[in-house]
Amino acid sequence: MNAIHNTNHTGSRNSPPALDHPQLANIFTADQARAHWHDGALWFVRQKRDRMAKAIPEWEELRSLASQIKAHALANLPEYLELFERQATEMGAVVHWAADGQQHNQIVYDLLKENRAQRVVKSKSMLTEECHLNPFLEAHGIEVVDTDLGEWIVQLRGEPPSHIVLPAIHIKKEEVSETFHQHIHTEEGNYDPTYLTRQARHHLRQKFLGAQAGITGVNFAVAETGGLVICTNEGNADLGVSLPNLHIACMGIEKIVPRWIDLSVFIRLLARSATGQPITTYTSHFHGPRVGGQLHIVLVDNGRSAVRSHHTFQEALHCIRCGACMNTCPVYRRSGGHSYSNTVPGPIGSVLAPAMDAHKHHSLPYACTLCGSCTDVCPVKIPLHHQLLAWRGEMAERKLIPLSKRLSMKMGRIVLGNSLLFRTGGWLARFGLRMLPKWLTHHRLNTWARQRDLPIAPKQSFRALFQQRKKRHQD
Amino acid sequence: MNTTDNRNPRRTILDRLRSQSVPHVALPNLNAGAWIEYADPVQQFTEMIKLVGGNCQCIDSVSSVAKHLGSFSQRLEAKRTYSAVEGIPGNVNLGDCHDPHELENLDFVVYEGALGVAENGAIWITDRDLRHRVVFFITQYLVLLVRRTNIVHTMHQAYAQIAPPRPGFGVFLSGPSKTADIEQSLVIGAHGCRELQVFVL
Predict the structure, then answer these.
(1) What residues of A are in contact with residue B191 (Cβ under 8 Å)?
(2) Which of A278, A386, B44, B138 shows a CA-CA span of 20 to 30 A to A178?
(3) ipTM, 2 decimals?
(4) Candidates 3.40.50.1170, 3.40.50.10420, 1.10.1200.10, 3.30.70.1650; correct CATH number of B38-200?
(5) How much is the pLDDT for A2?
(6) What is the nearest CA distance from B60 to chain A, expressed in angstroms?
């Protein structure tokens, strides 16, 4: 468990490999209509993002600035964390440190126990999801309600979120209706999103009013002021921490920005990149607790420092969790968030997950066409597709890719390195593709041809064509 | 080195971070940016509020707002109202309210924002002199006033002008609460206010 903390070597935790991305994607794509619908829904969000980005002439400058601010903050992280701690403490907050998820969960539980809080409302936090806080608290008899509508839907259904900003993007309204009918007795067969949302509002209001503590994530923490920024559209975080006296805010150590004014850059980028909104409805700034209340801030490492130690992947810690890379990714859109079996899916998840556990997540760097679209939309300019390619190199070096792939790569190197072999191979392929019957080329072992036809082979190779052309020109 | 000390995770984390080398990058100067400026920021602000699902109206004075609200059906139907704006009445006194839970049935809130942002329709409000910040979120209907002289072009100007209450709370509020978590269908009125009316003075 603690192996990673004794070493700086990224991704050295060695749990058994999760199901491969292709295997899990198969489950999702088995329902073709749903896969297409999912693809379209996310592309719609991507287009909204484009419109918003284009309306800001200085968009590219903002991305560069955001990247520089994050790089600066990351380089000086220990100093900024200490400054943040000092400032937050001065404002009356209590700052806790957790080296891993287990420590984080224990801190949260101890705070709840100390305050005799049995009922907790939580607003969207991927960190608590990553640490598996809910099952931990539930095992201790505490009721935790996720109050973001999408999060609540997946919580009721016993699923993890499939997207970091749109947790229930994979679920149809008919299914939501069924889930709500089962749990809060809404009308059977009423699929109207407005009706369903109203019912959820009504039900969750009671949860807000009955809660003894509110847990939130954090979007940004400002070192110079000791403040926290939390962004939501629903107002759930604000409502959840304005009623009970206890507010516990959980954040990864990479959420630090140095200055108050830096927020202007990130707030301009975040919602536009995430959902194509000019800003989220609520961008809330907390400095210290409410009068008579308590604010506890838990700073969590849980593998982040290991990512920071790796020169190739450290920029992944710039991520502000907007989800734009997911919305644009052709693989994510068609395979669904659950196929990544990681809290953060998509391109950024495929970079971060192997950094936490390379063995378990060895297939994720291959869930990528290297098209580079993620890198183009990333508001903090993380070179995502370069990092994914770099991970493939790491995986090969650590022998974490399947034997079949390793052998075919070896073969490839031999063939491509020898002109005679290459020529013969080309001839064989051209001949084979033209002459062999379909059952011989499209079989179970050739997974590439499962949903595609093989190309019609030309009669001549490029080399032969080139020779002929040269000859013609000489004549 | 990077040893784990379970009793002192703070030192563990800081030691670990300090043992790593990360290339230094200078903190950029944000005052030098050539940010977008709108020909008519008030009009842009008004349009953005509509885009994010709110209503916005330009009006000449607080007394006109009061007169206007007199004919609002949401106001007429409201049982419990709170106003922090002088000249606009409300029937809830936060001074009598010891526990924010007592504000459960608050229907209608009127408040003045310190600043408006043209690029996104956001309004900066704080809980300075406000006993229970929950009023912004628990009310069904929210009315915000902003002076046209306090409308800036972008968030850069906004953050440069405001200072957060320390300790305290401040929020950029843009539009009524909303969600699109069910099949990307936009529904206004998630957990916060169901409607937002803005008056630009």
Answers:
(1) 147, 201, 204-205, 208, 234-236, 239
(2) B138
(3) 0.96
(4) 3.40.50.10420
(5) 35
(6) 26
